[in-house]
Specification:
Helix 21 packs across helix 23. The chain is an alpha+beta fold. The longest helix has 35 residues. The chain contains 27 helices and 20 strands.
Length: 705
């Protein structure tokens, strides 16, 4: 956009004279604010906000968005504050400008942290007004168009950020034209030689293809005309970055990618779309499995179209998209195509509802993320271009990224459903939670009231919402576990002095916490559970009986601390001796793992007795829950099928075998090593008795160390 007059001519085609004047006034304000400032190219700085407003005007955006585009760098690059913009142009425009402005007043540890904080601030502003991201996308688009004046390193950094964040956001909001331009400009800046070579190859191939493309287009037009359909047939070319990405991901040559001819057919109504599809399939043979109906089930960004692939002249594959003019506008400009604010607050249409759901999801991620870097990583995960469509048992459709599992589905339904998920049914059959879902499947989630997220889920979930919620739950659950365990350890230590936490005066406890610089008792208890403070010494300090010597429990002291198996993440069972309920046990307070439970006669525990103040007296509770890993070594005769016989015997007792391996003892006997989950020593004794009664089993022993 060369001048404000040229922009004004565009504005008058769809805005009222009063609204156009508001935009002009914002331009003159920006011109004055940026007076004397130049861009790297040497042009007056105001040419940049003018160009950004021009991009939004081409999308027919509202006048407030255009005013914000004119003023979007004023807060950041001049001495003018947000309040001054609010006074001049209203609070709505001021909030838009503030949402787009970068954080210039804060110090950041790294460039990545700065970018993440900037995006986090923008996401919060988007939750208030979605137009923030549209202004930001237009700003980034003009910056990408003028990238050539920057140093190579800076241009490459901006190009990488654009390909990672802004192009996928444009895709998510259905702004296909902006997305394609982002990708091609970013590709050219990041890989200039590859871009030039692919561009030259495309130009060369276009000359050879021209005649065949025209012949196919004419054949389609003639057929549709004979059937009485008024349609526009356009030859569609893949853009450079799309070709490059397909060559790389599918490991195909350029000629294989360019062998496919693509056409877009634009018609007047949805009914005509399906009639035209029938005409195409009668003209050319459709390729099975390549038909997609995005009209009945739109993509998450609101995109609608019929997609099909058919075999055309000389066996050439032809990709065809069929859509209405309204769908075409939506595909190119997405959320900006039918702007919400043009309706003066009337009902939100489908694309805006989807966009708002996505932004609300961003807001939820931001609230649960530990920091801005974690947040932006989750956003990158969430910006998937490929989606699948699955059904709830009641027939509701959910869009998920390709590769999503039942756990992703559960969190998409509701956070509480994800947190209490225990199993799933896919098309009415029980299936593993880790199984990737396919389009069209019906998924039912089975929940349990006492269930909680499993850390292993983190290895196979793909949606940002699932990852964020699992991490958030486990982080808080770990703290809750730590506080509960720390309280038990400290109470046990205080019991040695005939006291307890409940008996300590509140003032004395608060005074101790203040002197030790703890904000709350929970912080102290967490450090005790994590092994950073020793409970015995802390008890002595609390009671004012600080002594260098370890005080042994007296006859009236506390009993060993009972273990129930529900203590959570801050109590672990040593792998060296595999303690199970019924074994005499003792604990060691580790600075990394909390309390580690060993069998009383474990060799490794003997080495730890030098740090006797870290030892914790433990016993199994009368009501122990859960399953525990145990290892057996079975000596068997070398006979065919012995492993199958042993496995069958164990499975018949309802026991899960976790691991099985064999080792030859000599020519006559073999060792079979088993790891299995059992409840207690009595359960183990029954299993060992059953195995010893098996023919050709010579010996069964429990591996102790």
């Amino acid at each position: 956009m060369e001048s404000i007059d040229a922009l004004n001519a565009t504005l008058r085609s769809y805005l009222t004279p009063e609204q156009s004047n508001h935009v002009k006034r914002a331009y003159y304000f920006a011109e004055q604010a940026h007076f004397g400032q130049l861009r790297r190219s040497g042009e007056p700085y105001v040419t940049h906000p003018l160009a950004v407003a021009g991009i939004l005007a081409d999308m027919h955006m509202d006048h407030q968005s255009l005013m914000a585009a004119m003023l979007h760098d004023v807060i950041e690059d001049t001495g003018i504050e947000k309040s001054a913009i609010g006074t001049q142009f209203g609070s709505t425009v001021a909030e838009l400008v503030d949402g787009v402005s970068k954080l210039t007043q804060m110090e950041f540890g790294s460039l990545e942290e700065k970018q993440a904080e900037n995006f986090q601030k923008m996401a919060l502003a988007m939750a208030q007004d979605i137009r923030v991201i549209l202004v930001k996308l237009a700003d980034r688009l003009h910056n990408m168009r003028t990238l050539g004046v920057l140093q190579n390193s800076k241009a490459r950094r901006i190009a990488r950020e654009t390909l990672d964040i802004y192009a996928p956001i444009a895709m998510r909001l259905g702004m296909n034209s902006a997305r394609i331009e982002f990708e091609d400009l970013g590709f050219s800046a990041l890989y200039p030689m590859r871009a030039r070579r692919i561009d030259a190859a495309v130009r060369h191939a276009r000359g050879h293809r021209k005649e065949l493309v025209e012949k196919i287009r004419h054949q389609i037009e003639t057929t549709l005309e004979q059937e009485g359909h008024d349609a526009e047939v356009i030859g569609r070319e893949k853009h450079l970055y799309s070709i490059y990405r397909k060559m790389k991901s599918k490991r195909k040559s350029f000629s294989e990618i360019m062998d496919i001819y693509a056409f877009r057919i634009i018609v007047d109504s949805v009914d005509t779309c399906y009639r035209v599809l029938g005409c195409i399939h009668s003209l050319y043979k459709p390729v099975p499995g390549e038909f997609k109906d995005y009209i009945a089930i739109p993509k998450a960004n609101g995109y609608q179209s019929l997609h099909t692939v058919a075999m055309g002249l000389h066996g050439v594959p032809i990709e065809i998209q069929i859509r209405t003019q309204e769908m075409e506008d939506m595909a190119n400009n997405g959320i900006a195509a039918h702007w919400l604010y043009k309706t003066d607050g009337q009902a939100t249409n489908g694309s805006h509802a989807r966009a708002r759901r996505w932004v609300q999801g961003l807001l939820e991620m931001q609230q649960r993320a530990g920091n801005s870097l974690e947040f932006i990583e989750n956003v990158k995960i969430d910006l998937f271009p490929d989606e699948i469509y699955v059904f709830t048992p009641k027939g509701r459709i959910l869009e998920l990224p390709r590769g999503a599992t039942a756990v992703d589905f559960a969190y998409a339904v509701h956070t509480d459903v994800g947190n209490s998920c225990v199993a799933c049914r896919i098309n009415r059959r029980l299936a593993p939670l880790s199984e990737p879902l396919e389009s069209g499947e019906t998924v039912e989630i089975l929940t349990s009231q006492g269930a909680r997220p499993n850390p292993s889920w983190y290895n196979y979930v793909v949606t940002a919402k699932a990852r964020t919620n699992i991490r958030h739950f486990l982080k808080h659950q770990t703290r809750d576990d730590s506080v509960a365990l720390g309280q038990r350890l400290l109470d046990k230590a205080l019991g040695g002095f005939d006291s307890s936490l409940q008996q300590l005066p509140a003032e004395k406890l608060q005074d101790f916490l203040s002197r030790q610089r703890y904000t709350s008792l929970d912080d102290l208890l967490e450090e005790i559970a994590r092994g950073k403070r020793l409970p015995a010494i802390t008890a002595q300090q609390l009671l004012g009986e600080i002594s260098a010597n370890r005080i042994e429990p007296n006859g009236n002291g506390p009993q060993p601390m009972p273990i129930r198996g529900t203590e959570g993440f801050m109590l672990t069972y040593a792998k060296c001796c595999r303690p199970i309920p019924g074994d005499p046990i003792e604990g060691y307070l580790s600075s990394e793992k909390g309390v580690v439970v060993h069998r009383e006669r474990c060799n490794n525990l003997g080495d730890m007795r030098e740090n006797s103040e870290r030892l914790v007296a433990l016993r199994w509770d009368d009501d122990v829950e859960g399953e525990y890993l145990v290892e057996l070594r079975i000596e068997v005769e070398n006979r065919r099928g012995m492993i199958a016989i042993i496995a069958t015997r164990i499975n018949s007792m309802g026991v899960n075998i976790e691991k099985i391996s064999t080792k030859a003892k000599d020519y006559q006997f073999t060792y079979v090593d088993l790891e299995m989950m059992i409840h207690n020593r009595i359960h183990l004794a029954r299993i060992m008795k059953r195995l010893r009664a098996t023919p050709n089993v010579r010996k069964v022993i429990r591996v102790k160390n």
